[in-house]
Amino acid sequence: MAPLDTPATQLVDFNQQSLFVSAASVAFNPLFWNIVARQEYHNKILTKLFSGRSQVACYGLAATIFLLGLLRDFLYERSLRDQPSYPLLESNEIKYLAYALLISGNVLVLSSTWALGITGTFLGDYFGILMDEMVTGFPFNVTDAPMYYGSTCSFLGTALLYGKPAGILLTAWVFVVYKVALAFENPFTARIYAKREQERAAAKGDNKKSR
Ligand SMILES: *[C@@H]1O[C@H](CO)[C@@H](O)[C@H](O)[C@H]1NC(C)=O
User: Fold this and answer.
1) At a CB cut-off of 8 Å and minimum separation 6, what does 29 contact?
2) Model confidence over 109-163: pLDDT tens digits?
3) What is the pLDDT of residues 65-112, one digit of tens each?
């Protein structure tokens, strides 16, 4: 009698360590940048490390986050190679869907970086580098978090391109991790900007008094 879980019928091979390495790196990245960025906000650790130059410190963090992203993508692709393919995912229609997801994912990520600039994209507000005004044009009129949803689209596109159910599972994990990250980041960013608005309003008040 054949066991039910022969590799041929298995959707996801949980015996592959690379699957968990990839899942860990997906979770590690936002954990890393949130911990470091909050340390910067409260204690200026990165600005001190770069002798008071917060702009340079932010670029340093941006480069680190970018490299961690490349490592995460590398670990993801490597983990998919260890996983079984699913015949139904190997049709042409799925391939076209995969390309559409990869293209829209990259458009969202790149256009968002273009609209926000490097410091706007990579946590500049934690360094005291605030945007003058909220960016409301594309891609922010399509989604509130184009970076995160674009990246999620790219993960799904890659999973479908390789025809790997394990990739779809990892994409679901990416989605959950980013949802948690957004729930953690959005209120904090909102408070940073609210504080600036208060300071602006106070400064205006002072101007009136001195006149
Ligand atoms: C978003 O804004 C761009 C211009 O920045 C515009 O061309 C596009 O039609 C808008 N999309 C939606 C869905 O409103």
Assistant:
1) 65, 68, 69, 72
2) 999 999 999 999 999 999 999 988 888 899 999 999 999 999 999 999 999 999 9
3) 999 999 999 999 999 999 999 999 999 999 999 999 999 999 999 999
- Centre of ligand 1 to C-alpha 89, Å, is 33
* Residue minimizing CA distance to atom 1 of ligand 1: 138
Q: Does pTM top 0.90 for this prediction?
A: no
* CA dist list (Å): 135 to 132, 142, 182: 9, 12, 17
Rounded CA-CA distance 145/186 in Å is 10
Residue 23 CA, ligand 1 centroid: distance in Å: 34
Query: In the numeric block, which tokens belong to residue 114?
Result: 């273009």
Helices and strands per DSSP (H, E), number in the chain: 6, 0
Q: Is 142 in the pocket of ligand 1 (CB under 6 A)?
A: yes
Does the CB atom of residue 137 touch ligand 1 within 6 A?
yes
Q: Are 156 and 101 in contact (CB under 8 A)?
A: yes
104, 134, 141, 142: residue to mutate for ligand 1 pocket, most atoms within 8 A of CB: 141
